[in-house]
Specification:
single chain, 472 residues, alpha/beta, TIM Barrel, eight-stranded mixed sheet, 16 strands, globular
């Protein structure tokens, strides 16, 4: 029996209904391979720990006086008053001490600008093209950087390691746990999204203008960056066309992979966060307009010295400000800074203020930087409390880098990234006494066995024993 002719669209529908796996197979074949640099991080063995009689800042509520925090199986198992101790728990009497979530630095270059500070260790800026979205900071991290254990001793348990700001789009940043490791993949925070480092202002135009190339002006900054997003949209359309033809069973060639455009597509599809280096208020507004033009979202503006001028706009757009307490005036675009910047961004309705370092030295005392910002806000009448300021170091930073569901606050089920301080963390006289990462004690100021030193340091200074279960 002769069947009546069918339209191409009907044949396509029948083909998909009859062989549904063809479409899935075609799409799977066209996708980039699974992450070849996936996290191999494994929490260190730990025993249950009950911290008692402490002043507890959870980062999600009021402080708890004479409080307790229970760590078990690498997680926060309880927060409150007078928690019972499991039979096998180590009990830590924290009378007179304070307990907080581990500090998270959303802007670090540890490992990519490693110590010693020599050209051989300068791997943060690929200054060969203003658009280098194909670069991954992960591939430049040196886990033996002696600055990692110094940050741990300052209470920093996680950080976002970014490329530098010499390019308009510098590449992918990666979230890491601050632990001894043999490779960057052993440090990579499991499940954390990638971030894309973007920059505006003086740095890119200075680097490329001196080379006689674009961008040489702020006009060039915007134009070259827009061109990159246009190329990314064209790349997206090529793949969409390929998928459509593959689903229809038509003979066609798979587009060539482009690592740079793959990263930009990840941003456009909401899979990669944008961390935008920017100082001036007008430039931040221009970057927001560009994000709206191409349909992506900015997670945070970094440095953001003039964020106080547009704190309401940042809050309305769900953009965090990752800022210094009082670092300003070192170049023209950083001139109009004020000490109240962080407090004013925090004060805006739904504002998201963060204290960041961008410094191998500043990362060791982020608690003191937050204290300075809190004091500046209080001088102008905001009545900020330690339970307010701790959010600038923990949960807000976790939100900006996409890990707030896993860490950043003392809540049941979250990672047991915890710091015990000798006193209020916002006192210049306080120090991190003990630091736990996923429930494992990795730093103890009273126990040399828990004072991490890297292999690189072994030949230059006495090295105490590594943390329990650690890798030197």
């Amino acid at each position: 029996m002769r069947l009546p002719p069918r339209s191409p669209s009907v044949l396509l529908i029948l083909l998909i209904l009859t062989f549904p796996s063809l479409t899935a197979a075609a799409e799977q074949a066209a996708q980039p391979p699974a992450d070849p640099y996936a996290s191999t991080y494994k929490p260190r063995p730990s025993r249950p720990v009950l911290i008692t009689h402490a002043t507890v800042l959870t980062a999600v509520g009021d402080r708890i006086e004479d409080g307790s925090v229970l760590l078990r199986d690498g997680k926060i198992a309880g927060v409150g008053k007078s928690l019972p101790a499991p039979a096998d728990a180590a009990v830590v009497d924290a009378t007179g001490k304070w307990v907080t979530p581990g500090i998270i630095d959303p802007h670090s270059h540890l490992g990519v600008y490693a110590s010693p500070e020599v050209p051989a260790n300068a791997d943060g800026n690929e200054l060969t093209d203003p658009i280098t979205a194909d670069m991954w900071a992960l591939h430049a991290i040196w886990p033996q950087d002696p600055q990692f254990p110094l940050a741990l001793a300052g209470g920093v348990t996680s950080m976002l390691i970014l490329p530098g700001s010499g390019n308009l789009i510098g590449g992918r940043g990666v979230v890491v746990k601050n632990v001894p490791a043999r490779s960057a993949m052993d440090m990579r925070f499991p499940g954390a999204p990638w971030s894309l480092k973007m920059a505006c202002g003086e740095n890119p135009k200075r680097v490329y203008g001196q080379k006689g190339r674009s961008p040489a002006t702020r006009m060039g900054n915007i134009a070259v960056t827009r061109e990159a997003w246009i190329k990314a949209r064209d790349y997206e359309r090529k793949w969409e066309t390929y998928h459509q033809k593959a689903a229809a069973g038509k003979d066609n060639n798979e587009p060539d992979r482009d690592l740079e455009l793959e990263t930009l597509l990840g941003v456009l599809h909401g899979e990669i966060l944008v961390q935008n280096h920017c100082y001036r208020a007008d430039e931040m507004l221009a970057m927001i307009d560009m994000a709206k033009e191409f349909g992506y979202k900015i997670a945070a503006f970094h440095h953001a010295v003039e964020a106080y001028k547009i704190a309401d706009v940042l809050a309305e757009n769900g953009i965090c400000g990752a800022m210094w307490a009082d670092w300003w005036g070192f170049k023209m675009e950083s001139f109009d800074g004020i000490r109240e910047n962080i407090a004013l961004v925090d004060h805006a309705k739904n504002g998201c203020a963060i204290v960041h370092s961008d410094s191998a030295e500043g990362i060791q005392r982020l608690n003191q930087e937050a204290a300075k910002a809190m004091a500046a806000g209080n001088r102008m009448g905001f009545k900020l409390r330690p339970e307010d300021a701790i959010r600038w170091l923990t949960i807000n930073a976790a939100k900006a880098i996409g890990v707030d569901k896993q860490t950043g606050s003392l809540e049941e089920g979250k990672m047991a990234d915890v710091v015990i301080w000798t006193g209020s963390p916002f006192s210049v006289y306080s120090r991190a006494a003990k630091v736990y990462v996923d429930g494992a004690l990795l730093f103890d100021e009273d126990d040399p066995a828990h004072a991490w030193r890297t292999d690189f340091e072994l030949g230059t200074m006495p090295a105490p024993a590594p943390p329990a279960g650690g890798v030197q």
